[in-house]
Amino acid sequence: MNTAARLGSYALGLAVLFGGALGVGKLVGPSPTSTATTVGTDGHAGDDHATQPEQQHQAASQTSNTPGGLQVSQDGYTLNPITSLTTGVPTDFTFTVIGPDGQPVTDYQVEHDKKLHFIVASRDLTSFQHLHPDLAPDGTWSVGLTLPKAGAYRAFADFVPTGGEKLTLGADLQAAGDYRPEPLPHVSRTAAVDDYTVNLAGDLVPGRAGKLTLTVSKDGEPVTDLEPYLGAYGHLVALRAGDLAYLHVHPEESKQAGPEITFYAEAPSRGDYRLFLDFKHEGKVRTASFTATATLSDGHAPSATHDHSH
Ligand SMILES: [Cu+2]
């Protein structure tokens, strides 16, 4: 009980400090913190000032709109790369996730068949790897990783700490050498990978979940025997061009093994995104990549509006 009480007041202290720092540092714009909810559930804060509940409500609303992957540290969890990388050289890359107690997190909940999904994308969005590292008992994750060319990369760890909320933390990785960034590929509804063609139907819509249907064919024939991969018939990662914000995407449950795979993706804003579809067929996972633009369609307002009327 004592420990719990101490942890509680520690969290409260952090929340207040963090809130104060944001108040100074971010005079304009939403504050990307969810610590306000910690204060709200504590039961002690907010009694003194009548204005606090409203501020907390606003902070909570804004938090839900903050995309993942933009922060190396969030809600007390920090992505901590250990190994440095050399361009083009296969490396046993290790990292930890440091928890609120300052120690590496060792307990994770399985999500989409894995305890942690590790995504590495080049900053120009032309390179993408979706990896599943191994967890050692001491909380160290390790995975074979090669950064194929020189440049700046973003690594994402997508996980749910046991007893905690789903998080996507992001950290920069660098590969030394002659860096020649490529422009974002043109918007396209068709992607080719090996003998496969994948078509994209549906649109990303700012502020709400857009339905995306991807149809896989091989040599012109629809593929109807896709193999399960990560608890579904495909896995989609979407990154925003410009800052590599990591979108929340979830698959629609399907009993059909293709050719269609349906997802719901929440685009946080207008703009261009790069979509990476992993699908498994004949024992091999392949990735089809698309550039898509999120625009407001036919005058509908985003559904993520909040009712502030009284
Ligand atoms: Cu994964």
* Biggest sheet statistics: 6 strands, antiparallel
- The overall pLDDT average reads 81
Q: End-to-end span in angstroms?
A: 41 Å
CATH topology of the largest domain: Immunoglobulin-like
| Total beta strands | 19
Bound molecule types: copper (II) ion
Q: What is the fourth-level CATH superfamily of the largest domain?
A: Immunoglobulins
Give the strand content: 35-45%
Class from secondary-structure proportions: alpha+beta
Order of helices and strands: HHHEEEEEEEEEEEEEEEEEEE
- State the low-pLDDT regions, or none: 1-62, 299-310
Radius of gyration: 21 Å
Q: What is the CATH architecture term of the largest domain? A: Sandwich
CATH class category name of the largest domain:
Mainly Beta
By DSSP (H or I, 4+ residues per run), the number of helices equals 3
> How many domains, as an integer?
2
Shape: globular
Helix content: 10-25%
Briefly say what this structure is.
The chain has helices at 2-25, 35-42, 52-65; strands at residues 73-74, 77-81, 91-98, 108-109, 116-122, 128-131, 134-135, 141-145, 151-161, 167-175, 190-193, 196-201, 209-218, 221-222, 235-240, 249-251, 260-266, 271-281, 284-294.
Plain-language structure description:
It is a single chain. With 310 residues, the protein is an alpha+beta fold. The protein has two domains: 73-175, Sandwich (Immunoglobulin-like); 190-304, Immunoglobulin-like (Sandwich), CATH 2.60.40. 15% of the residues lie in helices and 37% in strands. The strands form four sheets. Strands 11, 12, 13, 14, 16 and 17 form a six-stranded antiparallel sheet that branches. A five-stranded antiparallel sheet has the order 1-2-3-8-7, with no helix packed on it. The longest helix has 24 residues, at 2-25. It is globular and about 50 Å long. The two termini are 41 Å apart. The model is unreliable at 1-62 and 299-310 (pLDDT under 50). This is Secreted protein.
